[in-house]
Design brief:
Helix content: 55-70%
Radius of gyration: 29 Å
Shape: elongated
Structural class: mainly alpha
Distance between the termini: 60 Å
Number of strands: 0
Strand content: under 5%
Number of helices: 24
Largest sheet: none
Length: about 325
């Protein structure tokens, strides 16, 4: 950093702003890029709050010596804030230094920053961090999409919490082998994280395994996935599930709009909570026979729920009357 003398007017202006309590506000202004002497003074301000505010200003990256100074700041909150800055990727020396910071909160912030996608060395460093919470943050980072080897390693981590984190990360879409492995994980919590991951529905092998999972909570979560319409055999299996709650979850799935036979089966389910859920599913507005059946359900609660549900726009007493209506009146808002 240059040691050029500071303009006395700068000192006076900063002193006045400090007295007015506006230094932190100043440190955040993009216009600071036009005043490098101000940036240098703010970087050594005695208030950690001012220096933290400066780390959030993208203009500091135009001044490498400032970023370098802040990466070794005595206050860990300053270094942690700097580690969260999305523009940090263009400064590998700063990133590398922060990845080895003695404070775990600094490394944790860096592990959560998508910008680390630009540095394989940093990812490798964080991947073997002894602090499990840091590996967990890394496992949640979408930056892993380009690092299948790192995904493999995290998916086999001894900590179920970390395996759960990677199972929830959409980045695993590039690693079908990992997805299959996680679908068989010994910890049901990991499998639960996987079944909630939106990308899972693109992997038939894993979906099929989860549909037969021994834990009903996994099958319950899968049954409500709206993309299940692409897997009729899996839906068929879930519609016959031995656990009432799983079939109830399926009855609430909007995908039933493309599965009339399954909807019909659920409308005849012996467990009235399944029929109750179906009665409130907007998808059945496409099926006049089911509408008629549920409107006359033997269970009063089902009939009442059906009659009062705002999601079913059309109530008819006959299929003929329903079919005679304009298409615009038959189409529900899904």
């Amino acid at each position: 950093m240059t040691n050029a003398p500071v303009d006395p007017l700068v000192i006076i202006e900063l002193t006045n702003l400090k007295a007015a309590g506006k230094l932190e506000e100043l440190a955040k202004r993009p216009s600071l890029a036009m005043k490098p002497e101000w940036i240098r003074e703010l970087a050594k301000n005695e208030s950690p709050g001012v220096r933290v505010a400066l780390t959030r200003n993208l203009t500091i990256w135009d001044f490498p010596e400032i970023a370098a100074k802040l990466s070794t700041d005595e206050d860990p909150d300053v270094r942690r804030s700097l580690a969260s800055n999305p523009a940090i990727a263009n400064h590998p020396h700063v990133v590398g230094r922060l990845s080895k910071d003695e404070n775990p909160w600094v490394r944790k912030a860096l592990a959560s920053n998508p910008a680390i996608a630009e540095s394989s060395e940093v990812i490798e460093s964080l991947l073997i961090d002894p602090n499990a919470s840091i590996r967990q943050r890394l496992a949640q980072n979408p930056a892993l999409a380009g690092y299948p080897g790192s995904i493999d390693l995290l998916a086999s981590d001894r900590s179920a919490t970390i395996r759960c984190a990677i199972a929830s990360n959409p980045a695993i879409a590039e690693s079908p082998g990992v997805i299959d492995s996680l679908a068989d994980d010994i910890d049901w919590g990991v499998r639960d994280c996987l079944v909630r991951n939106p990308i899972i529905i693109s992997f038939l092998k894993a979906v099929d395994r989860l549909a037969g999972d021994k834990n009903p909570e996994i099958r319950y979560q899968l049954a409500f996935n709206p993309a299940l319409a692409n897997f009729p055999e899996v839906v068929e299996r879930l519609s016959n599930d031995r656990t009432n709650r799983v079939r109830q979850s399926l009855a609430a799935n909007p995908a039933l709009v493309d599965l009339p036979e399954i909807a019909e089966r659920l409308a005849n389910d012996k467990y009235y909570y399944v029929r109750l859920e179906l009665a409130q599913n907007p998808a059945i507005a496409y099926f006049p026979e089911i509408i008629e059946k549920l409107s006359k359900d033997k269970n009063k609660t089902v009939r009442q729920a059906f009659a009062s549900s705002p999601t079913i726009p059309t109530r008819t007493t006959s299929t003929q009357q329903w079919q005679a209506q304009p298409v615009s009146q038959k189409t529900p808002t899904l």
